[in-house]
Amino acid sequence: MPRQSAKASATPSPKALAAILEESGIRPTAAQLERLWTYHQWLRKHNEELNLTRIHNFENMVRKLYVDSLLPGIMIPLPSPLMDLGTGPGMPGIPLKIFHPHLHLVLAESRQHRVRFLESVCEALGLEQVVVEGRRIGPHYDRSVHGVITRAVEPMAETLERIEGCLEKGGRVIFMKGPRCDEELERAVRLFAGRYAVVEDRAYVIPGTPHRRRLVVFVRESERPAVVRQRAGVGGRHKVVASRENAEFKRLFRALTPKGIKKEGVCLVSGSKLVADVLRSRSDLVQAWITVQGGPPPPPASPESVVWLELDKALFEVLDVFGTGRPLLCVRVPPCPPWSPEDGLEPGCTLFVPFQDPENVGTVLRTAAAFGVTAVVLLKEAAHPFHPKAVRASAGAVFRLRLRLGPSLHDLPATLPLVALSQDGRPLEEVVFPDSFGLLAGLEGLGVPAIWRKKAAAIPMAPGTESLNAATATAVALYEWRRRTTAPKASSEPAR
Length: 496
Prior knowledge:
34% of the residues lie in helices and 21% in strands. It is of the alpha/beta class. It folds into 3 domains: 14-220, Vaccinia Virus protein VP39 (Rossmann fold); 238-332, CATH 3.30.1330.30; 341-487, Alpha/beta knot (3-Layer(aba) Sandwich), CATH 3.40.1280. The chain has a 7-stranded mixed β-sheet, covered by helices on one side. Helix 13 links the parallel strand 13 (348-353) and strand 14 (375-378). Helix 2 (30-50) packs antiparallel against helix 4 (93-99), helix 13 (358-371) packs parallel to helix 14 and helix 13 (358-371) runs parallel beside helix 16. The protein is elongated and about 95 Å long. The protein starts with 13 loop residues before the first helix and ends in a 10-residue tail after the last helix.
């Protein structure tokens, strides 16, 4: 710890307070010093009763509370109106207001004994243009502010979500953090890409202490939900859904089943990353952005034609089958043209999929995209590739692959150049992959028809192991095919 100066170690007084502030590079006017000293006295008077702060030493209070609160106003311009989120006994908001009287300030604090303290101390200090908001701030809170500042320990991503309804586009979020906040910063940047951007990340030390701090500032790039609602409502692109009998809800509900997907021609996409990926790569297919009431508006990059559907919480939970709590997309299902044996096979690998489990279908589609198959033929036995479970398991690959609709597994002619997978076949290492061929995995549990078993490929397994999951077996075979096609020619021929 640095040695305390004679001034700093003096008996608590306005003079000692001014000395510590000046040592920290802050020169208060007489009026500012008087108000800050009054605020200090109120803290000391009510602290034991209300548990306002755990810091009791005078010098520590000045440096760790008041100086720390004032430093952001020295390092960056302060937006106004400014909300101090989770202000507690009024920090950093009240010291900032004392030194920046032009600020319109909102002190947000949900604990009622602290709310009463804030109201009393603001009156005692004669602070004008200060609002004490005595409730928890959430996405539904829509009082417009141009800035938010917080010393709270809440993760950045949670704060950004909570101020969704109140911070204006172009507004700043000022986080006063400890030095080790990289992980939560990275998470916030990832989750709120397109809605917020980091414009400041500055390390500093509270003067006269060893305490290192971080000032992280985000700027908002998206509009407040209220603004988006107003604009979208004019064009009929914003709808509030509160009844199960609503036609929009019925349509979305039907999209949870294969039959409904075929009838409506749409599917549902869930999960923050997948939703963002589909909006970025297949925005032409997106029809609706679906949230719970009070949820975030469509991202700025969304097509203008996208409709924002705000659902009653109970209705949203029906559609949010994976319980993500995040916005969903209603996406138009791209066309899947038919395929017949007469069409033949294109160069490379065509994957034939008979899987009846939608998660297996999604998993194998993700694998197919990873290894670069030419096309995927979904046989009649296969689960719908745009079933919510399949879409999620595919990690979006279902929107990137060339999908075709084929005949039944049992109607594939024996003349097709297929490499089937079966434990009755010869070892995979002995199989020759033609330049154009189809890869066929069997039905879960039942395997491939008998006509394919003798010339099938078998994946070596440990003794006593009955079989591999069908999607896993397909992944192994596709890896082996891709390995050979990318290997030097001298080593690409399999052993016979």
